[in-house]
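User: Hey, my collaborator sent me this sequence without any context and asked if I could get a structure. I don't really work with proteins. Can you help?
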Amino acid sequence: MSVLETRAYAKLNLSLDVLDRRSDGYHEMRMVMQTVTLSDALRLETGTGKPLSMRSSLGFLPADERNLAAAAALRLCAETGADCGGLSIELDKSIPVCAGLAGGSADAAAVLRGLNRLLGLGLPPERLEAIGARVGSDVPYCVRGGTALAEGRGEVLTTLPALPDCHVVLCKPAFSVPTPELFARLDGCRIRRRPDTAGLLAALAAGDLAGVARRMYNVFEDVLPERRGAEVQRIKNALVQQGALGASMSGTGSTVFGLFDREEAARRAYELLQESYRDTFLARSLEKMV
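Assistant: No problem. I've predicted the 3D structure and written it out in structure-token form, which is a compact way to encode the shape of the chain:
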């Protein structure tokens, strides 16, 4: 038997823009994505002599191919002919679910990277990203990690200059909004405000953390149900009042995050928000996958 322990890192949307609805039913996206150190832990074991097994620290998560981690393993085996018999996946969740942080996609990406090493497949990252795209739209980015522009459904990636090292406070209020509902709301209205993606890319190229933070925006914030939108705004305001250079919602939410250039300010914000929100985390930006 062979064993590998690895981590799956959460992603943030520094910006999120929805450009159009495509003929295949998906939406054309333009997003700047960033990996942070908040992570799940995975243990992969091969050669157990048993069928594929999946176990999670959260009992309500599916333990079969409906879980993206298991789906990724099955897809890798199907596309490469690798022998994944007797594979066991143990998942210890820290990234909150249904939070806009790509937790499931990050788990799938970690399985792809991990099995590539464990089985000695030698697949290049581009191949892993292509396999991941058949598992979920965010999986290719989670395979690559770092700072990247994601277009198409999210699978067309361009690596960007790294976000300057910073502290990140993440706060998920006690609600989630189904992704299809938010897309339907967006389709039914005129988008009033869009992120300054070009300005954000220029700020990244210049290594200007404050410039990046000022330009962060997510179009889904405009179509949240009123009470939930107000709560997201309250968290954003609290982060900025505690010294965040900027704050935004990630993905389809409901996690809100702020970027800080000073650790003491980030820690104060974390401690303040943790009093009201259980799912509050202190993290760092991550330049590359480790």
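In plain terms: The radius of gyration is 19 Å. You can pass these tokens on to your collaborator as they are.
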